[in-house]
Amino acid sequence: MGTSESAEHPNSEFIREVAAVSGVDIRPCYQCQKCSAGCPVSGAMDLLPNQVIRQIQYGRREKVLASRSIWVCASCQTCSVRCPNAIDFARVMDGLRHLAMHSEVSPAEKEIPLFHRAFLDSIRSTGRVHELSLIMRFKLKTRGFLKDASLGWEMFRRGKIKVLPPGTTGGNEVKAIFDACEKGAGQ
Amino acid sequence: MNDVTYFPGCSLHGTAREYDESFRGVAKLLDIALHELEDWTCCGSTSAHSTDEALAVALPVRNLRIAGRHDRDMIVPCVACYSRFKAAEAGAKEHPEYLETPYEPKVAVRYALDYFCEPARSEQMRAKVVKPLAGLKVACYYGCLAVRPPELTGVARYENPEHMDRLLGLLGAETVDWSYKTDCCGASLTMTRTDIVVELTGRIVAMAREAGADCIVTGCSMCHANLDTRQTALAAKGGGEPLPVFYFTELMGLAMGHPEVKTWISRHVTDPKRLLAKKGLL
Fold it and tell me: What is the C-alpha to C-alpha distance for residues B213 and B175, in angstroms, rounded to an integer?
């Protein structure tokens, strides 16, 4: 990867955008591919971690934000701790997901961003995540009502599923935190 | 009596209930008084840091501010919460603009495994062992966040950690040497890309089995949920006998003779009772 792109001029605009959103400068990358070699989910990726960096260097914003890779990254941070140039790539992935959520690009993985939204909605509504409510929120978004239904039952009968959501008083403060962060993001 | 603040987090009040129960159980045996953080709220977990860095700092900081009112360390058994607290401490320093009011760190946040691994505390634990876990071969599985990134966790040997192995050794268990100690289980992808989690947990379980382990031990509620519940899918794929997965606190409780161990482990989907009975430990 990379050599076939060599006729194209690199473009630093996306590099700067990624640096601003993630706090990480990817320019020191020399394509050793250590990140991709150690990545546990590389098999499910359409762009390997080093290829994501290459595409950022080429300024291909849409290709990167529309990739499967940014969503299947499990944030295990193996890439970050092994990078010889100390590029915190896990944080780059966080930044790319943030950009994707705030862009018009259609995500390659539909359910993962929906899950994050359901999770955050759950925190916003009660201050804590009530797992059963989260699962219902998520299933309403995906219509996948039967998936893991028998596992859910197995967990329920072992006392692992709390039926009632918690009553917390910190909920209003949490709503205020969400509002403040939204306002910040809009600036 | 040692007084500490306890941050359970959302999963310990739900699917990781036995981690909460066993953590409370062993704390009591070791004369540690737990004060659950009043009015705690969610740390934001993967979904916040994956999508909104400011939220990923502000949500944990709310809890850190409350914990800072007390002159006590805060112990966190959920390694995902712990990781978000450590990242938020660093993030608040780096980006004070993420917060409406400045944050002054006042509380020491400790991961429960690290806390019990301290020499004085693990010595205290060893002295209380009444039922050594002789004959039990365990694969200590650290996962990601207990060790990475080392700047936040302080774990120097993050590629091949051994502190949990030493703790289990003090309980009388035999720990196996294996190379998947810090490989990822797929974590929160379990709800969305279950296929990836089945594959990753499959590799971890297979490698633990190949190393000769009878069971896997973890200190992470996501790792536990994935390894414990996704083995039915593995077995269906010809993965062999399921390996029980314990929280390290459950095995501490077992070795120290806690009366409620059976209740804790009855919550597991992959039944560990047969293994423990076979080893004469139950």
Answer: 8
